[in-house]
Amino acid sequence: MTEALGEALGRGALAIIAYAVLGLILLIAGFYALDLATPGRLSRIIRTDRNPNATLVAASGVAAVGLIVTASIWASGGALLEGLLSTLIFGLTGIVAQTLGSLAFDRVIGLDVRALISEPRLHPAAVLMAVTHLAIGLIMAVSVI
Q1: Which pTM was predicted?
Q2: Among 106, 27, 99, which residue's Cα sits nearest to residue 68?
Q3: Could you give the CA distance from residue 132 to residue 140 in angstroms, rounded to a whole number?
Q4: Domain of 57?
Q5: What is the tens place of the pLDDT at every residue in 19-66?
């Protein structure tokens, strides 16, 4: 019985590590997809300029990807290899859908993302973009489940 428990705990710990690594890769991919969809280098604007608008937009994008990845893991049903593959596919699909959805929403609403990202003070449009990212992430997450 002790061996069975140890084996189950070992498999569980490996699954956690595998999902954590894949999740981190998808979060980074989501950040860079968002970076490509916005003017300027987000990491530089956040780190050097300490821009609150860029930070809010980037943080909400990463959180939205996190929702999608979490839902993909939840929906995997415990089968590790299939779960990792479905998390990868759903995660990448979610990143693409979120990026395209955000670009479309920004265009329809008429936001000037370039001006927003360069604005030094927190702008209400950044809050709208952040909520939009989270809503798109939530929609994608629920569609996976």
Answers
A1: 0.82
A2: 27
A3: 12
A4: 2-144
A5: 999 999 999 999 999 888 887 888 899 999 999 999 998 999 999 999
